[in-house]
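Lab manual, section 2.4: Encoding a predicted structure.

Procedure: take the sequence of the chain (255 residues), apply the prediction step described in section 2.3, and record the output as structure tokens. A sample record is shown.
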Amino acid sequence: MAVSREYIMVKKCIIQACDKPLYAKKICKNHYELNRIRGRTYKIRGTPLYQRPVKCPKIIEKCIIDQCNNPSRKLKMCNSHYQLKLSGRTHKKFERTPNGTSIEERLKNKSKYNPENACIEWISTMFNNGYGQITINRVKKSAHVASWEFHNKKSANGYFIMHKCDNKKCINPEHLMLGTNSLNQKDKILKNRQAKGTDFPSAKLNDDKVREIHKLLNSGMKQTEIAKIYNIDQSIISEIKSGKRWKHVEVSQCQ
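Recorded output:
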């Protein structure tokens, strides 16, 4: 590289429009530090501007599912569709709805009419408790709740949306009604849908053991002795005898 006459005579920085004294490598201290930290990004007298090489933009592939514009992560699918793939669903069952689709269209496209019970059953993503799941404004809620709120044009506001048909998948607004927690519990007990007996994972007894306990009570054995046999508290034996616990077990068979 040819050195300018100005540099030889005055010994100034060779950077264009810089008159500061030299520091090292024919440039001033400020440009030397800039060169060390950022690389050569300045223009030398009589030479073109040196810049860092521009990196090629990374090509981002989109999800292979129709109407999904999210970037692909695994198996050429986005994270959402990949997780649904792991659950065993096929592509057609969980195709994403296009952005801007109304709630009415989503409820219609993700449900199917059942002529046997006149229920409109949800066929898309489900919660673990068996109720349909829908996302509205990035908030997950039950599909039957969203259906009731859409058709009644108001929010449930903490109230329960109860099923008249006892079908958790149903989103038919004619089969839904507004209720309270106490009303929901009474309806559950009336229809014998509450958890009982061996439905609880921590239950130490079963129907056969309860019948054996009734037989031992009828034979005259003390409650404390029976409690030691089954490794439970004596109060549980007392509640079984009075009918407060395990009352669904038929006592007539134990006589």
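Check your result against the sample. The radius of gyration is 37 Å.
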